[in-house]
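Entry 14. Structure prediction run on the chain below.
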Amino acid sequence: MEHYQICTNCVMDTSDPSIAFDAKGVCDNCNGFYKHVLPHWHPNETSRAMFQKLVDKIKSESRNKPHDSILGLSGGPDSSWMLHLVITEFGLRPLVFHVDGGWDTSAAVNNIKVMVDKLGLDLYTEVIDWQEMRDFQLAFFKAGTSNVDHPQDHAFVAAQYKFTKKYNIRYILNGGNYSTECIRTPTLWQYYGTDMSFINDVRKQFGTSKMESYPWSGILYHKVYLRYIKGVRVVKPLNYLPYIKEIAIDTLSKTYGWQALPQKHFESRLTKFIEGYWNPTRFGNDIRRVQFSSLIVTGQMTREDALKKLESAPYDPSTIDEEFEYVANKLEISVDELKHYHQMPKKYFRDYKNREWFFNFGARVMHLMGLERAMKR
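Output returned:
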C-alpha cells in the first residue's frame, strides 16, 4: 500500500482500494450515506405508519393462506429482531425457514430454537447436501479469492426463493437494513454472490461435484422474473422501524434467552473463520471496519470506540490452531492443505469469468430508481 489514509469520520481506510476522500478527509462511504441514505431514512412514527399500511395489504392479500410472508432466520440479530417485531407488534404470519449449510454455531442453533418455541412457530429447514457443499467450498478455497463464503451465501438466497415459489408466497421479509449495514462491503472484499458466471468458472476449474440438489438462483430469476413477472416483493421492515442494535440484543436476550454473537455474521462457524481470521490475515480485509463504520454514522458507536476495538485482532490467537483443525477436518482435508490455500498467491474475482458490468449497471439503475440507496462499489 503506497499511501495509507483513514477516514476522519468513520474507520474505513485504504485497505479498500476503491475508497476516495474529500478535502476534509471524509470518505465516499460517509458522503454517500449523508447524501443518499440519511435524507430518505426516517425510522419514526411516520415510517411506522407506512409499514403498518403495507402490513395491512400483506394480510389482506394473504387472508386465506397459512402464511402471509416468508422470513429467513439465521439466528443473528437482524433476522431475529425482525421476526420479533413483525409477529409481536404487527401480527404477521411468516413462513420461517432456516438454511443449514453445515456450519451453524451452537449459539445460532439456540437462538433459532428459543424464538421459534416461544413464538409457537413451525420451522422449515433446508439442509444442504454436505458433500456438495464441501466440494463447492473447497473449490473456492482452491480459487484463492476472498469469496470463500459464496457457497453458503448463495444457498441462503436461493433457498429463500425456492420456498417462496413452493408455497406461493408473494412477500419476502428481508433483514437488510440501513441501521447496521449502510456502509456497504467493498466489491473487491466481497463480490456479488449470485454472479453465475463467476461461480460456474470456479466450479469448472476446481469443483468435482455435479451439484444436483444444491439450490441455485441467478440474478435474472430473482431480480426480474420473480419480482416483475410473478409479483414477488421484498420488504425490509427494519428500514421502517427504529433499530438500535444493542437495544435489540438486550430485548432478545431478556425475552427469549437469545445469545449474543461475538461479531456480525458469526452465526456460521466458517464465516467466523473467514471473516475473523482468513481474510484479515490473507487479504488485509477487516470486515469490522465496514460494520463499525455503519454504527458510527448511525450514532450507535463512537469513532474512538471503534478505533480502540480495531487495535485488537479480530480472532483469538490462542484458539486459531483449533479453528484450522476444525475447518480442515470438516472439509476432510489436512491442516497443511488448508494452510497452503491460505499462503498461496492471492486471486480476485476479476481473475475469473464474471459479469461485474451487469451487476454494476443493475445497481446503478436501482439507485436511480430509489430502490437501493446504499451503493456497493
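The radius of gyration is 20 Å.
Filed with the rest of this week's runs.
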